[in-house]
Amino acid sequence: MPAASQDSFQERKRRLRASFIEQLPDRLRQARALLADLTSTGRQDEPLTQLHLIFHTLKGSGASFGFNAINASAKEAEQMLREVIDGDRRISAPLLADLRRHVQTLEELELTVDSAMGNDSHPCFDLRRQANADAELTAHNRLIYLCDDDPLFAQDLSEQLQCFGYQVKPYHALDDLRTAVLTQRPAAVIMDIIFPEGRDAGPTTIAELNTQLDAPIPCIFISQRDDFQARLRAVKANGRAYCRKPVKAVEMAELLDQLTSRGNPEQYHILIVDDDPDVAQFYAMVLESSGMVSRVVSEPERVPTVLEDFDADLVLMDLYMPHCSGPELARVLRQIPGYLGLPIIYVSSETDAQRQFKALEVGADGFLTKPIEPERLVTEVHLRAERMRTLRSLMIRDSLTGLFNHNTILQLLKVALASCQRSDRRLCLAMIDVDRFKSVNDTHGHQTGDQVLMALGRTLRLRLRESDIVGRYGGEEFAVIMTGLDAEQAKGIMDALRESFAAVTFLADGTEFHCTFSGGLAAFPEYSDPSALIEAADAALYRAKHAGRNCILIAHHQDADGVSALTHSS
Ligand SMILES: Nc1nc2c(ncn2[C@@H]2O[C@H](COP(=O)(O)OP(=O)(O)OP(=O)(O)O)[C@@H](O)[C@H]2O)c(=O)[nH]1
């Protein structure tokens, strides 16, 4: 962790601990008042529940902020109250005396907590550092070395990868590669497995090289071999991917994109629900210091509204909260269709397995028991959020291109349009379609056709802004949603993309060919609902095809007659 952020982490943590200490007298006063209300006769549900909540919070926060004596005393008192609440809810005179003793102990501890301020032993850490290591090394460097003992293959694949923006240097001798890596470190190496030096010479060379480098070199292995031993050798040499030959340039480019990713690793969004704002802020701080984005909510009733804006990968939830418990909130969320699969993890000092199990029954996904070390919190949250992203991605993305699928793009169009209507912003929808794609399939085969679609998907994804939404609408048709631009500006962007795509040289069976696409654009506010936008963009695309293809046309209401005339004359 850089010194500056480490300082601010410690500083923020110090402030949260201070806030906990500041609130301690108030909490204990409340506990005293509740104890005074309690008598040893009759059932007293409300004060019992409130008192239990206070001890429970003191137990959890005490542990989180490293005040072990507070945690221990509150824990005992909480346990006593738990037994009463689970039993006949009548409190005996000796028990009442015990609870008073605990409050007194806590009051005495309150006077000493200041000196405990320095006893925080939670380690500082930064998981981002590892995740960013390769990205940092490669941020300005798209140089790739490709090593294969077949010089023609190496030359050919290198040239194809140039089309995807990589500077690829081919090598066919292991010694030459070794010297090159030690002289100038590339962003990644693509390495064959079998060489004249041996059946595993590729991974052996990379493993040796890694021992001489500060950080292992990101490596993709390629081979005709598909046996377990070859794959194992590749993994042991820190291989990040393994591709069977024949290698497709587009797929290799995708892997290189992932390996040499220039952007930040995707940040997970975590919603923290805890009625104790200090504890919630503490978790937020821990998660943020490891590169996640968090949002804190103290009132459970606000959670559904906050989730509408904050696209959470996971909800971290307190178990005991006044008015609405964690399990009740989990149940509410599970009854909202969009949140059926949203991971919910409780964080609580509840250690009773039976009660944990009951809380999980309502559809939550896990339980983290307080006190939780920051490093463990980050690891647990990271793992679950990552899994959620993977599952969600399978549901919403097209498997060939990795772009949003048809249903998702329709959904996203609705959401983007509603947001632009609210904020009075412009929106453009472009429908684009590969020209004469049938003949690509007929001439070069379906697999080559797939490569063209993948290449177009990749061009759209990498060349458009992060805020633009790109999807595969179906077959060889793609949809792009751009906000904050008028139709002319969007046409300028799509035209530039169209020209770069036309310049890509595809190779199939030794034959080179090029592809183009046509596009239709429709803009909000001229078209003001999703189906009108789609229909108009589609009609403009149709006109573009009839106008000779390889062009982008903008839809206007006055064109409607022209479009229908074309439709009828075709
Ligand atoms: N390889 C491949 N082909 C696909 C896929 N989806 C649709 N196609 C093919 O795309 C072709 C589309 O052909 P047409 O609709 O006749 O249009 P076109 O040949 O592109 O001609 P224009 O659109 O008029 O320029 C059909 O042959 C489909 O089989 C896919 O996922 N992969």
Compact summary:
Keywords: Phosphoprotein, Two-component regulatory system. The chain has 570 residues and is α/β, with parallel strands linked by helices.
Topology of this structure?
Elements: H1 3-37, H2 45-64, H3 68-86, H4 93-116, H5 127-138, E1 143-147, H6 151-162, E2 167-171, H7 174-183, E3 188-192, H8 201-212, E4 219-223, H9 228-236, E5 239-244, H10 249-259, E6 269-273, H11 277-289, E7 293-297, H12 303-309, E8 314-318, H13 326-334, E9 344-348, H14 353-361, E10 366-369, H15 374-396, H16 406-423, E11 427-434, H17 437-444, H18 446-463, E12 469-474, E13 477-483, H19 487-503, E14 506-508, E15 511-513, E16 517-524, H20 530-546, E17 552-554, H21 560-569
Parallel strand pairs: 1-2, 1-3, 3-4, 4-5, 6-7, 6-8, 8-9, 9-10, 16-17
Antiparallel strand pairs: 11-13, 11-16, 12-13, 14-15
The protein binds guanosine-5'-triphosphate (GTP).
